[in-house]
Amino acid sequence: MTQHQRLLIIDFGSQVTQLIARRLRELNIYCEIHPFNRVDDAFLKAFAPRAVILSGGPASVFAEGAPMPPGGVFDLGVPILGICYGQQVMMHLLGGKVERGKGTAEFGRAYVTPSDARLPLLDGWFAEGREQVWMSHGDHVSEIAPGFAVYGTSPNAPYAITADPARRFYAVQFHPEVHHTPKGAKLYENFVRLAGFTGDWTMGAYREDAIARIRAQVGDKKVICALSGGVDSSVAAILIHEAIGDQLTCVFVDHGLMRLGESEQVVGMFRDHYNLSLIHADESDLFLNRLEGVGDPETKRKIIGGLFIEVFDKHAKAIGGADFLAQGTLYPDVIESVSFSGGPSATIKSHHNVGGLPARMKMQLVEPLRELFKDEVRALGRELGLPESFIRRHPFPGPGLAIRCPGAVSRDKLDILRQADAVYLDQIRKHGLYDDIWQAFVAILPVRTVGVMGDSRTYDYACSLRAVTSVDGMTADYYPFSHEFLGETATRIINEVQGINRVMYDVTSKPPGTIEME
Ligand code: XMP
Fold first, then answer.
1. Are 433 and 424 contacting, i.e. CB atoms less than 8 angstroms apart?
2. What is the mean pLDDT of residues 469-495?
3. H helix and E strand count, the chain
4. 226, 227, 367, 400: least CB-packed within 10 angstroms?
5. Residue with the larger pLDDT of the pair 353 and 374
């Protein structure tokens, strides 16, 4: 466990619990989210939090088996902040009353006015006499627990802000973690300050810590890492390399489905800049031969995934095997979700497991980014000296250009696609749009169309441009390029890329579309 000062978030299943963690991490506070049904008194003792936050959640304290924290949480002697359902839990367990929502449910924007603003939690709040907050609750507190007093009210929430300052227990009806509570971050800042946090969770400190932990875990054994050229696996590799040097070998499997110049860039950067032991496995012939004539998207993915494992395994054996497999697993992938039906849910996402490698290779995992959110990984990458252009790269899918080439993949089509994609990205960069876009790429369509260039008729491929905005890739919207930009880009692609004579712009959102073509 980290040596940093720790804050525990007990999760009751709110949709926005992760945002609490985000706000705290922005304040350089180390925190972990744990589902209520995984936290017992022994856990509390071992975790030794300096403060606890009880999250919101969809349940009612009246429901049978309503989610509750372990009793010992109120005896820890540390500050506790209850949010929404967390507030109701505190009142319910500490001797107050909660009532079922009867006409008092409140969803959306509300304004809280102070009853008494001298509470340290409210320092810097109520500058204009009232503060906008975001409410989302059915039940409500109807009587506060002994020791508590009211510090803020809203028209529908007489107990919007309550506290027992002697015990440092705070309970609010609204959600300070969401964007619609503009001063919410200030509330968290005050809370962690009065809990005595010094903000020791910095990337510099994390780097030192992570290096020590990797050394302790690995000892003098060997580690192998599949480097994809993406930010997560790259940062993980550089960090591990800093910890154990040449005990780490990275394998970059070049499946022949990378973008123009990409393999050389990735390999060059790691070899020259980081002096990392790297196997550049050029297996493009193997992949492209096996993919020949295969048009079905799922079959393509299976072939690529299967070959990837085969090739990685081969190179791992060639260096005499390894005891550990490094992966760039992130914190959102390991947070367990709360389940109200049946036992605790253990749905840990596994999409960072490179094609099922760990199960097959029976190696222990080294996952030095398990505690980090994506933007923290980027910050760590900067700390480790990764160039900004690399850190800000758009995501690129494992199966590469194969899924941007609907229908059968061929070397000819891939060459055309690479060139068109390079022109498109050049346009986006030149117009200063790259960082506003989540992902942008060209797909080559399995159709030829007629055109006219000069005096001659052409019969070439059509391609489509895709650019989307997104927060997490789960939903996405198309990017609203100007018509001038689209026209200029189409002209450049058709003029500069032999083999394409028609350009479309894909304006499908996700859902119902996906970001990739296949
Ligand atoms: P879709 O197309 O499902 O893509 O909307 C969502 C995000 O995931 C990426 N993607 C993948 N990434 N291996 C990956 O590493 C894959 O097989 C894969 N398929 C899609 C896609 O590029 C987008 O960012």
1. no
2. 94
3. 15, 20
4. 367
5. 374
Task: Tell me the backbone φ, ψ of residue 226, rounded to 5 degrees.
Answer: -85, 110
**Ligand 1 atom showing the smallest separation from residue 516 Cα:** 2
Q: Is the CB of 233 under 6 A from ligand 1?
A: no
Residue-wise pLDDT for 91-128, tens only, equals 999 999 998 876 667 788 999 999 987 899 999 999 88
- The pLDDT score that the predictor gives to residue 338 is 66
Helix H or strand E encompassing 308: helix 297-318
Q: Is 368 touching ligand 1 by the criterion CB < 6 Å?
A: no
Phi, psi of 304 (to 5 degrees): -65, -45
Total residue count of the chain as it appears in this document: 518
Nearest ligand 1 atom to the CA of 305 is 17
Q: Which of 131-145, 278-292, 353-367, 369-383 has the highest mean pLDDT?
A: 278-292
Q: Which parts of 299-424 are beta strand (E)?
A: 324-326, 364-366
Q: What Cα–Cα distance (Å) separates residue 382 from each residue in 238, 264, 378, 387?
A: 11, 21, 6, 7
Amino acid of residue 394: H
Q: pLDDT exceeding 90 applies to what percent of the chain? A: 78
What is the separation, in whole angstroms, between the first and last Cα of the chain?
Answer: 41
Provide the pairing of β-strand 456-469 with 439-453: antiparallel
Residue nearest to atom 17 of ligand 1 (CA): 398
**Is any atom of ligand 1 closer than 6 Å to the C-beta of 516?**
yes
User: Whose Cα sits closest to atom 20 in ligand 1?
Assistant: 397
Amino acid making up residue 93 = L
393 close to ligand 1 (CB < 6 Angstrom): no
- Asked if the model's pLDDT at residue 16 lies above 90, the reply is no
Active site amino acids? 84, 175, 177
Asked if 311 contacts 286 with a C-beta cutoff of 8 angstroms, the reply is yes
Whether the Cβ atoms of residue 242 and residue 210 lie closer than 8 Å to each other: no
* Interaxial angle between packed helices 374-383 and 203-218, expressed in degrees from 0 to 180 and rounded to the nearest 10: 90
Tens of pLDDT, residues 371-383: 888 889 999 999 9
Answer whether 475 contacts ligand 1 (Cβ < 6 A): no
Residue of higher predicted confidence among 346 and 276: 276
What SS3 class is residue 169? strand
- In this structure, the number of other CB atoms found within 10 A of the CB of residue 123 comes to 15
